[in-house]
Amino acid sequence: MDFLYQRGRAAVGEVMQGIPDPPSYSAVRAMLRTLEEKGHVRHVEDGRAYIYEPIVQKDAARAGALTHLLKTFFDGSTEKAVAALLDLKSQQLTPDELDRVSKLVDAAKNEGR
Fold first, then answer.
1. Tell me: the pLDDT tens digits for 20-39?
2. Contact present, 7 and 14 (Cβ < 8 Å)
């Protein structure tokens, strides 16, 4: 999906060329077909090739993926996910980044989330 969001549209071969360490052609084709069945992409025929393009906005896909991630790995807990991210990245965050994260937390408190 990342590649399709960047390119806008692509054939299977183009997807394979654009992603690192791609699986086989048939695996990429099957993945795109699955994404189409789930309503994430659609295809148009260009000769013998299928050209795939995303139909779900990136923000909506991101929200869905994050919701799934929270449910799957963090028992639906935003707190656990944030704690894991901070633990994972704490050595790499700059003081400015930490300040911005703190402001986001403060804003969420003020909004009653």
1. 999 999 999 999 999 999 99
2. yes
Angle at 6 between CA 63 and CA 46, to 5 degrees: 115
How is the chain split into domains, by residue range? 2-54, 58-110
CA distance 49 to 107: 48
Per CATH, domain 2-54 is 1.10.10.10:
yes
Q: How many whole angstroms separate alpha carbon 50 and alpha carbon 36?
A: 12
pLDDT in tens, 43-52: 999 999 999 9
Structure tokens at 73: 């790995």
